[in-house]
Design goal:
This protein is an alpha+beta fold and 85 residues long. Helix content is 45%, strand content 14%. The protein is elongated.
């Protein structure tokens, strides 16, 4: 298969139970490629700005969960407003 025609998606949410799918579909392959690219970008941003992000959103960016669910986030740094949707 050429890149962009198929993709493998695999998860192990509990660390033991594994589930995977091999899908031959250009749209699915594009989705997986976009997800991986996005994750790589976020990892680089966290590497470069980890201290500031931890201060803003807490360890592991856990405060982002509250923002996504419409709750308030971890206490913001002075001068750094947090938008909650």
């Amino acid at each position: 298969m050429a890149d962009g025609e198929a993709a493998l998606w695999a998860l192990a949410p509990g660390g033991k139970d594994r589930d995977s799918r091999w899908v031959i579909d250009p749209l699915f392959a594009s989705l997986v490629k976009g997800y991986v690219r996005h994750d790589m970008y976020v990892q680089q941003i966290y590497t470069d700005l980890g201290d500031a992000l931890n201060e803003q959103y807490g360890p592991g960016l856990a405060g982002l969960t509250g923002i996504i669910e419409g709750r308030s986030a971890a206490p913001a740094r002075k001068g750094a407003p947090v938008q909650t949707a």
